[in-house]
Amino acid sequence: MKKLLNIFLVFALTIAMASCNDEWTEELYSHYVSFKAPLNSKGVTDVYIRYRDDSVSTYQLPLIVSGTTTNPKDMNVKISEDADSLNTLNYERFQNRIELYFTQLADTLYTIPDYTTTIPAGSRQALLPIDFNLKGIDMFYKWVLPLTVVDEATADYRAHPRKNYKKAMLRIIPFNDYSGVYQTTAMRIYFKGTTTNALVISTRSAFVVDGQSVFFYAGATDEDYVNRFIYKIKALFNSDGTLSMHAEDERINFQLLSEPRYTVEENMDDVLPYLKHRYVTINLSYSYDDITSVPGTTIGYEVKGSMIMERKINIQIPDEDQAIEW
Prior knowledge:
Layout lengths: L1 H18 L12 E4 L9 E6 L6 E9 L9 E7 L1 H12 L8 E2 L5 E2 L4 E4 L5 E8 L10 E7 L8 E2 L3 H4 E9 L4 E4 L3 E5 L11 E8 L2 E5 L14 E6 L5 E5 L7 E2 L4 E8 L6 E16 L8 E16 L5 H4 L3
Parallel strand pairs: 1-10, 2-11, 5-9
Antiparallel strand pairs: 1-3, 3-8, 4-7, 4-9, 6-8, 9-11, 12-14, 13-21, 14-15, 15-16, 16-17, 18-20, 19-20, 20-21
């Protein structure tokens, strides 16, 4: 009986081994094509592009092939814009709050050569070059470039069946030396004529205007405020350490209370020798009127203090947008 049992076990093991795939040589999944563009909590992928006044900046968007083996043939992958997915994203996230909607990037601000790229045989990925010419961009809008891998029955590839894999929602964020998120806990917002009960905002974003200028929103106005466009304050960084500032909308009665100045300081990290810290500090004092919070009533504010932005830069990475720890 024991001998028969041993024979049966050997026979079963032989059958099982014969039916198994060789996981090192045979494909266990499928060769699907997708973007490498992971979504953040807002449903988009932040893409930082160096702003240049007179030339283009090129972003290389990765496409990857899934599977356990390399693809055996050239894949000529076709790409297209995907406005429908962006519309769906906006409605699902913001419903009727259209002031919060992402806006599709204007086609005058970018170029995608041929809308195709080839993933060569034996490779798992390729790069899709996107050329950006962002001169004149208005960062009041939340620009997104929505792309999709085109899935055609006659194509020599297959797009990944999971929608968020074959889609790329690229949130385009141009940057210069002074744009970014500033810490503003040292900035105080007072009702005009008072020096108590100050309002404090923890951060303030500064958006690109051009190579030497940014804009931010006055006082406590933030990027989700329906009338934020009225409160745009532009700041030009002069070479002598001063700022030239003005409001786009004269109705808010923006006035400087002292000469605004800035400093730039750089130093290497004490522990990580490849990491450089760059600090931009802005000191300013201004007043403005809130003309929208209470219909028919003007509320005056005075803002005083400093804003500090830190950039951590890995000097070992040659690509500037990748070197900065966003």
